[in-house]
Specification:
Length: about 110
């Protein structure tokens, strides 16, 4: 199995995004790659844009809020956990809801 470096993975994802710039899955994957490289502001920008364009993309709420915790933006993290819980509830995604609630409670209580 070929191992791709993080920069290779980023280049591949960006190439796919050129054909489909609003693809939520690809944007989410790219943000996660940026987190691995500790390019946290780039990841934050991507997650915010993704959720602005596709607020129903439940999986990004958790990762954005965790990232905001890392950036010591506690109030913003709480806000995104709350938005994520509301979105997961509407979508009937109990797994995501429980994951978001647990992280939220760890931060708040």
């Amino acid at each position: 199995m070929d191992y791709l470096s993080p920069m290779d993975r980023i280049a591949r994802i960006k190439a796919f995004l050129e054909q489909n710039p609003k693809d939520s899955f690809l944007r989410h994957a790219l943000a996660l790659e940026y987190i691995k490289l500790e390019q946290l502001q780039e990841a934050k920008t991507l997650f915010l844009a993704l959720l602005n364009d596709d607020p129903g993309y439940v999986g990004s709420y958790y990762h954005l809020a965790k990232l905001l915790e890392t950036l010591e933006e506690r109030d913003a993290a709480i806000e995104w956990y709350e938005k994520g819980m509301e979105t997961a509830k509407k979508a009937g995604d109990n797994h995501a809801l429980n994951e978001l609630r647990a992280a939220y409670e760890d931060l708040v209580f």
